[in-house]
Amino acid sequence: MGVVVPLEERPGGTDAGLAPLLKLVAPAMERVNAFILSRTGSEVVMIPEVANHLISSGGKRLRPMLTLATSALCGYSGDGDVKLAAAVEFMHTATLLHDDVVDGSEMRRGKLAARMLWGNEASVLVGDFLLGQAFKMMVEVGSLEALRILSEAAAVIAEGEVMQLAAAKNTATTEDEYLAVVRGKTAELFAAACEVGPVIAGRPRAEQAAARSYGMNLGIAFQLVDDALDYGGREAKLGKKVGDDFREGKITLPVVLAYRRGSAEERLFWKRTLEDGDAQDADLAEAIRLLGKHGAIEDTLARARHYGAMARDALALFEDRSEARALLDVIGFVTARAH
Amino acid sequence: MGVVVPLEERPGGTDAGLAPLLKLVAPAMERVNAFILSRTGSEVVMIPEVANHLISSGGKRLRPMLTLATSALCGYSGDGDVKLAAAVEFMHTATLLHDDVVDGSEMRRGKLAARMLWGNEASVLVGDFLLGQAFKMMVEVGSLEALRILSEAAAVIAEGEVMQLAAAKNTATTEDEYLAVVRGKTAELFAAACEVGPVIAGRPRAEQAAARSYGMNLGIAFQLVDDALDYGGREAKLGKKVGDDFREGKITLPVVLAYRRGSAEERLFWKRTLEDGDAQDADLAEAIRLLGKHGAIEDTLARARHYGAMARDALALFEDRSEARALLDVIGFVTARAH
User: Fold this and answer.
1) Mean pLDDT, chain A, integer
2) Which residues constitute the signal peptide according to the record (chains A, B) (predicted)?
3) Distances B77 to A150, B69, B71, B201 between C-alpha atoms, Å
4) What are phi and psi of B23, to 5 degrees?
5) In angstroms, what separates the C-alpha of A151 from chain B's closest C-alpha?
6) Contacts of A142 in chain B (CB under 8 A)
7) Which of A159, A176, A181 to mutate to test the interface with B (most CBs of B within 10 A)?
8) By C-alpha distance, which of A101, A47, A98 is closest to B163?
9) What are phi and psi of A5, to 5 degrees?
10) How far apart are CA B143 and CA A10, in angstroms?
11) How far from each other are the two terminal CA atoms of chain B, in whole angstroms?
């Protein structure tokens, strides 16, 4: 069941910020990719088919690269970082499979979502399989502290998704409530991916906390930029359609801001389209107009830069180490995606 | 979010075989129940609601009791057994939540399935949450070997479910292929639940293997009796409707046997009703008639007794210990459910 796993490299342009990270982790990342392929195997042919459809679809593998980079930053020299990085990517892949079922999404990374090809059933179950495989990999590394961090992350991620499900139909969601969703569904895995590096390297608590804080704030910035891109990115770049969040009735930060800043009439528009699910094709243009009127996209990006700044300061503890530079550049990459 | 968790005790009747086990584990099981309740909590209110709907619905909690019993059998005296037992029940609950989504089931344990009340989305995500919580509990116990066994089980269970998904529409499934599904989707968790007892008690490999073998064969017997009951049990006892497997197009052992023993015309009947999904209400009666004609139910139960006998022999290693008696009686309980 050999499958080519492209590690997306787009030199120049807005992705230049990722180049130092790619360079830093390239040799280890090759081992991660090989390890990932070796663990999607199963005699049940549907499992590698579904798993590899998503795994080989050209995600940037930012999360596993963060595990490798924070391990390198902390001078780790064993091979546990490769297995934990693969486990992080499997957890992420499992989440995507389940998310697409929950959201009824048709596309993922510019391809048909797995559920469109193999059905919701297979997507749920292959996600479960990958989660089981992820824990097996972690057990092989043998660090109970890393296991604790990643199993906590698994529970928190699911909690964030349920929170989003409950908030999905409430346009009156506050910015704080929405941030709690983002911390759970996105930032927690970034945080855990970064935290396990210093943990397996046996570094002091302060470094673990700093790496976690970097990951958490980077993850929040990442999600907010994603939210902004959903209303303004080019489709080829997003790998999904502009307005997907809108069509799925998702309340994201741009909407939270525009709703709070809007007139009574505008609030009725958001309620009709997002709460009541009565969005027509023409409504997306109106939504984008309202977001523009209230500066909601710009301010979402400004918020993202705020979390980027927090991530930057968290790294100050490591600033004398050369690996820290690559992690700093990732912040630039994440917040610059929008331009 | 306090919820009463009934530990089903039905003295006398066919459940008498469970009495010695219930007595053996009663004090520890109270702690398991309290621990379970303490870990379904979340500020996201939908999580305890969905989780407790199923957790408090009166399952027998056979799997966690097996963990407690094999721990006691091996002289374990810590409190890791309680946490592992709770983790096993959470894994089981997560599986049921996902199964009902995959199968489109409407009922579970005589109540509406969670997905009918909160939707497929919440069922998928709360299942993920419980799986994350299960791993957190295991990590607290600190046994890497128990973690290895249970994470392996998580992957194998999902594999078994995918296998069933693929086999669901194939009436030509062989008995061996079907057994591979049963080992994965049901027996693996029984096996893991039993194996972790001697593992945390630090007992030799031979005892771990014996406990695992007992659990594996007991689990197979359990599933085969379930398959037979689906075509003949009373609804109150099953907590689901007679013929659910038939209506869902599931190929179970009774069908595997009847198909192989049937005429060409009968095979067309099974193909139409199960493969093509064209089952009318009247077809269930015809299915039951064909199963009876070929002795498929009786022989499914005979097969179950065969695995029960294997489970019994696996216990021989422990037969001088009083706790082994309770585990032997469980075999009788499982295989006698059908009468």
Assistant:
1) 91
2) none
3) 29, 12, 8, 8
4) -65, -45
5) 5
6) 144
7) A159
8) A47
9) -105, 100
10) 44
11) 39
Render each residue's pLDDT in chain A as its tens digit; 339 residues: 333 333 333 444 457 899 999 999 999 999 999 999 999 989 899 999 999 998 888 788 999 999 999 999 999 999 999 999 999 999 999 999 999 999 888 888 889 999 999 999 999 999 999 999 999 999 999 999 999 999 999 999 999 999 988 877 789 999 999 999 999 999 999 999 999 999 999 999 999 999 999 999 999 999 999 999 999 865 445 556 789 899 888 999 999 999 999 999 999 999 999 999 888 889 999 999 999 999 999 999 999 999 999 999 999 999 889 999 999 999 999 998 865
Burial state string for B77-115 with b = 16 or more CB within 10 A and e = fewer than 16? eeebbbbbbbbbbbbbbbbbbbbbbbbebebbbeeebbb
Question: Mutating which of B92, B139, B144, B164 best tests the A interface, going by the most A Cβ atoms within 10 A?
Answer: B139
CB contact under 8 A, B154 and A128: yes
Q: Is B113 helix (H, G, I), strand (E, B) or coil?
A: coil
**Run of H or E residues at B112:** strand B111-112
Residues of A in Cβ contact (< 8 Å) with B139: 144, 147-148, 151
Which token pair is A72? 């390198």
CA distances (Å), origin A211, targets A234, A331, B110: 32, 13, 49
Chain B positions touching A154 (Cβ under 8 A) are 128, 131-132, 135
pLDDT digits (tens, 9 = 90+) for A15-68: 789 999 999 999 999 999 999 999 998 989 999 999 999 888 878 899 999 999
Architecture of domain A7-142: Orthogonal Bundle (1.10)
What angle do the packed helices B62-73 and B19-39 form, to 10 degrees?
110
- What's the per-residue H, E or C state across B149-196? HHHHHHHHHHHHHHHHHHHCCCCCCCHHHHHHHHHHHHHHHHHHHHHH
Residues of chain A with CATH 1.10.600.10: 7-142, 144-324
Rounded CA separation B77/B64 (Å)? 16
pLDDT tens readout for residues B197-209: 999 999 999 999 9
CA B79 to chain centre: 24
Q: Is residue B300 within 8 Å of residue B257, measured between CB atoms? A: yes
Nearest CA to A98 among A68, A134, A70, A122?
A122
Mean pLDDT of B238-245: 74
Which is the CATH superfamily of the domain at B13-336?
Answer: Farnesyl Diphosphate Synthase (1.10.600.10)
Q: How far apart are CA A4 and CA A280, in angstroms?
A: 40
CA distance B129 to B85: 17
| Nearest Cβ partner for B131 among A126, A131, A159 | A131
Enter the CATH code of domain A144-324.
1.10.600.10
Q: What is the pLDDT of residues B314-336, one digit of tens each?
A: 999 998 899 999 999 999 999 98
